[in-house]
From TrEMBL:
One Pfam family here: Aldo_ket_red
Protein name: Aldo/keto reductase
Lineage per the UniProt record: Bacteria, Bacillati, Actinomycetota, Actinomycetes, Kitasatosporales
InterPro entries for the chain: AKR, Aldo/ket_reductase_CS, NAD(P)_OxRdtase_dom_sf, NADP_OxRdtase_dom
SUPFAM superfamilies registered for this protein in UniProt: NAD(P)-linked oxidoreductase
Stretches assigned to the NADP-dependent oxidoreductase domain: 16-260
Coiled-coil residue spans: none
Keywords, in A-Z order: NADP, Oxidoreductase
Recorded family membership: Belongs to the aldo/keto reductase family.
Taxonomic source organism: Streptomyces chlorus
């Protein structure tokens, strides 16, 4: 049901997945179980979310064959550096209860520490060993990607960045597209804050007999983004994957394009340490 996208190394990733930021471990188990039941096959967690164990328990209990799942986790900032990265990865893998992860991301570049190149070299080792099927980054500005492209050998498969109608990131998307890096949108629903009440989005939702969240997810998919909406509410978990039975037209897409305010909800990647 969810269309696949092919990453630059040939690995296939569902274009829509399930995010678990800010979900406590026990609740993550229930939410991931509900998501797998609803048909999601891609799960996005991170070491710093503190819910890799709950995510892993839900995956193990689901009965979904491992090869049908796509599990992403992320290395936390404190674990950057070559050796620390290898230890951080072992800890994540063990908490998840898996033999490999599908996608491993550097969570933030933390440029002030200048360790992301060494960190990425450890990612390349994990990739060469087959312990991760694809490696990538998160919150990388083009200038940091440029350094990785210059100083390392494996082109990141993904850059996961804040992206929603109020922060459409046209320059980053173009930069990624030119280099074969998939753009993955975090906080795709704008964290469910004011975005879902914006009159233009509500009007498009009414026109299609859909919800504002479904319209925003559809906009991402039609732009080519990978999306990972989060919810712990079973009805919304189902609603957020039920976005393949309609399409936005050119007028709808133009109305949403006009909402860009270049406004972040989250942190500025240049200053996170
Ligand atoms: P989101 O944009 O997915 O919004 C989630 C919130 O929107 C929910 O908590 C809920 O309040 C609301 N919501 C969800 N579905 C809804 C619906 N159908 N109708 C109405 N309201 C709805 O926000 P997010 O959790 O920040 O981002 C999604 C995922 O992205 C995270 O869970 C995480 O996996 C990832 N993420 C990554 C980073 C990073 O630095 N790499 C940062 C933030 C988030």
């Amino acid at each position: 049901m969810v269309p696949p996208i092919t990453l630059n190394n040939g690995v296939v990733m569902p274009q829509l997945g399930f995010g678990v930021w800010q979900v406590p471990d026990a609740e993550a188990e229930t939410a991931v179980a509900a998501a797998l039941e609803a048909g999601y096959r891609s799960i996005d967690t991170a070491a710093v979310y503190g819910n890799e164990e709950g995510t892993g328990r839900a995956v193990a209990a689901s009965g979904v064959p491992r090869e049908d799942l796509f599990v992403t986790t992320k290395l936390w900032n404190d674990d950057q550096g070559y050796d620390a990265t290898l230890r951080g990865f072992d800890a994540s893998l063990s908490k998840l209860g898996l033999d490999y992860v599908d996608l491993y991301l550097i969570h933030w570049p933390t440029p002030a520490h200048d360790r992301y190149v060494d960190t990425y070299r450890a990612f390349e080792k994990l990739y060469a060993e087959g312990r991760v099927r694809a490696i990538g980054v998160s919150n990388f500005l083009p200038e940091y990607l440029e350094r990785l492209l210059d100083e390392t050998s494996v082109v990141p498969a993904v850059n996961q960045i804040e992206l929603h109608p109020h922060l459409q990131q046209p320059a980053a998307r173009e930069y990624h597209a030119e280099r074969g890096i998939a753009t993955e949108a975090w906080s795709p629903l704008g964290q469910g804050k004011g975005l879902l009440e914006v009159p233009a989005i509500v009007a498009i939702a009414q026109k299609h007999g859909r919800t504002p969240a479904q319209v925003v997810l559809r906009w991402h998919l039609q732009l080519g983004n990978v999306v990972i909406p989060k919810s712990v509410t079973p009805s919304r978990i189902k609603e957020n994957i039920d976005v393949f039975g309609f399409s936005l037209d050119a007028e709808d897409l133009a109305a949403i394009s006009a909402l860009d305010e270049d406004r972040r909800l989250g942190s500025d990647p240049a200053t996170v340490n």
